UniProtKB/TrEMBL annotation:
InterPro entries: Cupin_2, OryJ/VirC-like, RmlC-like_jellyroll, RmlC_Cupin_sf. This is Cupin domain-containing protein. Residues 118-175 form the Cupin type-2 domain. It comes from the Bacteria. It comes from Pseudaquabacterium inlustre.
Length: 193
């Protein structure tokens, strides 16, 4: 089953300050990951500071993919995640550096020989992940949680992976907010590295 394309409406202001539609249509940046066929990033928007400038600026989704949000900013995207395959589970870890490099953050991959899933990764951000369609399993260093449509994960910079064991594509919506580890967590993470 193919999931529908994303329709995006961006508003703005005219010279008199009236609300207008700046753009209305498909997302300009939709990218499939070469290292993980079937994984598709649908970039919706990003902000590059806090407070975010409310302006009629250029579309921040144009250009190369970036996994984390901009420094002091946010990022919103949909991600279509295909079912895990036996080949991916057996050999996926070797391809992960390339996959994370394609999305602008090769350092995010934390996969090791004893990792519970080949997509283990971490970003220094608060991420809200919402299952829109399908099922997903959140995999952590310790424990897993099955997620269905309407499930929301508040991901607080932890090591994790998204395992699709459902047999069909899952679409998730992610909102990423730049963050900074609390010092005792940063120290604990450095000791584990």
């Amino acid at each position: 089953m193919s999931l529908p394309s994303i329709h995006r409406v961006v508003t703005g202001h005219d010279a008199e300050g009236r609300a207008i539609v700046s753009s209305d249509g498909p997302l300009p940046t939709v990218v499939g990951l070469q290292a993980i066929p079937g994984t598709v990033f649908h970039e919706v928007w990003a902000t590059h500071g806090t407070p975010a400038p409310v302006d009629n600026g250029a579309d921040p989704t144009l250009g190369p993919l970036s996994l984390p949000p901009p420094r002091s900013g946010t990022r919103i995207r949909f991600v279509d995640i295909p079912p895990d395959t036996a080949d991916f589970l057996a050999h996926g870890a070797a391809r992960m550096q390339g996959a994370f490099a394609q999305i602008g953050d090769a350092a995010a991959s934390t996969v090791k020989a004893d990792s519970p899933h080949p997509l283990m990764h971490r970003t220094e951000s608060i991420d809200y992940g919402v299952v829109i369609d399908g099922e997903m399993t959140l995999v952590l260093d310790e424990g897993e949680v099955l997620l269905r449509p309407g499930s929301v994960v508040v991901q607080r910079g932890t090591n994790h992976a998204w395992a699709n064991r459902s047999g069909r594509v899952c679409r998730m919506l992610f909102v990423l907010v730049d963050g900074a580890y609390e010092p005792t967590i940063a120290t604990a993470l450095a000791a584990r590295a």
